[in-house]
Specification:
5-stranded antiparallel beta sheet, alpha+beta, Ribosomal Protein S5, domain 2, Alpha-Beta Plaits, 4-stranded antiparallel beta sheet, 2 domains
Length: about 200
């Protein structure tokens, strides 16, 4: 995997695992920010209010350095960690997995719980479409109208995305490209007379 790419899921998916009467409903969601986590879990708690536990794990960020696990009163280490383990085993990031357990009346024991939460998480991931994404950098560029052809040639040659275009005596637009292409693209743009570029964000 290149340094500016990562694997995640295309859209939300569900899975299911059953063990000794207990049902483990699993839900995988693509997420990009920790602020998205709480509303999703609260919604699942309301929709599945009869479930005894709603355990989860998530990993966020291209470097996969933001993560958390929650056992939701299951024995420590039996739910959140196995769920996280599945996210790791598929090499994913920007993913939240919640497993809601409907208790079937029979205790499963530590090893049984670990297997159940791991299997439920794997089920949700297996039902998801895994995609490869690239980290994009966004810049605003400003340039004189007479430099239009030079700018457009670079954008076309390098396959650079553009938006928020404004064409006048002074032109401007937002462009985006892969982080790993930064040096080459900015070097080419900087050779154009009168051009200025301002970094906006990376996402």
């Amino acid at each position: 995997m290149e340094s500016d790419s990562y694997r995640t899921i295309q859209s939300a998916s569900q899975g299911l695992y059953k063990e000794k009467g207990s049902r483990f409903l699993s839900f995988a969601f693509p997420v990009s920010d920790q602020e998205e986590i709480k509303p999703i879990i609260e919604k699942l708690r309301k929709e599945h209010h009869e479930a005894r536990h709603h355990c989860y794990a998530y990993i966020i960020g291209q470097k996969r350095n933001i993560w958390r696990v929650n056992d939701d009163s299951e024995p420590s280490g039996t739910a959140g960690r196995p769920i996280l383990g599945q996210i790791n085993s598929f090499g994913l990031t920007n993913v939240l997995i919640v497993v809601s357990r409907y208790f079937g009346g029979t205790l499963l024991g530590v090893s049984g719980l670990i297997n159940a939460y791991r299997s439920a998480a794997a089920s949700a991931i297996s039902n998801a479409e895994i995609i490869k994404c690239t980290v994009q950098e966004f810049y605003e560029i400003n340039y004189p109208y007479i430099s239009m052809n030079d700018v457009m040639k670079i954008l076309k040659d390098e396959g650079i995305s553009q938006s928020d275009q404004s064409f006048d005596l002074e032109c401007s637009m937002i462009i985006s490209f892969r982080t790993s292409f930064r040096g080459k693209i900015l070097n080419k743009l900087s050779r154009i007379d009168g051009i200025k570029y301002t970094y906006i964000e990376t996402r």
